[in-house]
Amino acid sequence: MRVIITESPAEVATIAADMIADTVQGKGKVSIGLATGSTPIATYKELIARHQAGEISFADVSVYMLDEYIGIDRSDENSYYRTIRREFAEHVDIDDSRVFSPNGQAESIAEEAARYEAAVRAGEVQLQLLGIGSDGHIGFNEPGSAFDSPTHRVILHPQTVRDNARFFSSEEEVPVEAITQGLATIRAAQHPVLLATGASKAEAVAAMVEGPVTAHCPASILQFHPNCTVIVDSEAAAQLDDREFYIAAEKQRRARTN
Q1: Angle, helix 41-52 to helix 9-24, in steps of 10 degrees
Q2: What pLDDT shows up at residue 26?
Q3: Contact, 204 vs 196, CB < 8 A?
Q4: Can you tell me the distance from the alpha carbon of 243 to that of 248, in angstroms, rounded to the nearest whole number?
Q5: Phi-psi region of 177 (alpha: psi -120 to 50; beta: other; left: phi over 0)
Q6: Which residues are known to be catalytic?
Q7: What's the CATH code of the domain at 146?
Q8: Hey, what's the torsion of the CAs at 132, 163, 112, 119, to 10 degrees?
Q9: Residue 27 confidence class, pLDDT cut points 50, 70, 90
Q10: Alpha helix (H) ranges present in the chain?
Q11: Structural domain total, the chain
Q12: pTM, whole model, 2 decimals?
């Protein structure tokens, strides 16, 4: 696991945007996985600015969303499909037909989960952008999720509902179920890139990077991925015991490539 510690959230966004640009630019047809939430917004803004400056094209890129609420129409402003369109895809040259998400209003959620699992696997996601919840969840894989889980239906933890209430008019409006890529699905991506900023994520980051691999912290399974990158600001890195090593290791990596 590569851990990059930065001084600010802005640096997190810049480094993440660099990695996405390196993945898609000039590579032909590419699939990337995107996450919603507050943390990746700065990364999307950076990518939009680069696109508008003519530095990067997403014309051959397909996007796979991590998850979607059950019971919300795709056109609803609070659906994750609409969120990623509003915050990123509408501002670059990604065709709408290349933005894929689970259907939270499918007649059979089980069948929809299986369909989306097959679609993501067939897409062969090169880079999967991730955030992390304060309880260590990734996607909507809450504590206790099976490490070998495919895309599936989940009941959201009350803390997740409370955390997401800021995007709705009230907590009562937040859906309590969702379809999410499973931990096995996420791990199938060639390069998971997890972003975390702020002191509220410090405990989860420490558990993910340095704690035991346990279902109590779903993100900890990424310790077993051969090509995972974690990008955090100094506040989110505050509880890491080996901060000095991560900083020194990254400095050496950069020296080798210059």
Answers
A1: 50
A2: 83
A3: yes
A4: 9
A5: beta
A6: 67, 135, 137, 142
A7: 3.40.50.1360
A8: -30
A9: confident
A10: 9-24, 41-52, 80-87, 109-123, 158-164, 183-187, 202-210, 243-257
A11: 1
A12: 0.94
